[in-house]
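Re-running Reverse transcriptase domain-containing protein to confirm reproducibility after the cluster update. Everything else is unchanged from the original entry.
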Amino acid sequence: MDGIHPKILKELKEELAKPLAMIFRKSHEDKDIPEEWKTARSSAIFEKGSKSIAGNYRPVSLTSIVGKVMEKLVRNHLLEHFITNSLFTNKQYGFIGGRSTSLQLLRVLDEWTEAIDAGKDVDCVYMDYQKAFDTVPHKRLVRKLEAYGIGKEMREWIQNYLSGRKQQVSVNGHTSKWHHVTSGIPQGTVL
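Result of re-run:
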């Protein structure tokens, strides 16, 4: 989106660190997010089944590389806050470094085995929250962050980051017009 290849940031990290830090600091202080950080170009990649069913396509979004660096900084800040304040249950495995879904499966199997060995019943309910990340109301998310003790400045930055977003979608060489995104976690971001 911003025309900057990730390799450029990697190769010139020493030279770009200070200017990027200034941009990120200014963005955080002013709660001002460049428009390029709020746009995504999505391509629909066919997975399986009938090509005439929209649900059989997976969106892959291109977003700003510089914006993703800022997103990682914000994500790391949020993770540190949640970990430091013990806001994650020890049963939370998704989206946390060092915890994989494979480890979660082993833990659950171990608990089930212990229960069965103790003569207890084991009931299991599987739920799939389809499109869960696509339907998160932005205002509710920001209120949740407040309830978890995330500071006002960070919440305001996130609120601004989520508002005014837009995307366009390309399928089979056809590109849609730009559409405003009013809910959900932005596709292609690290937050």
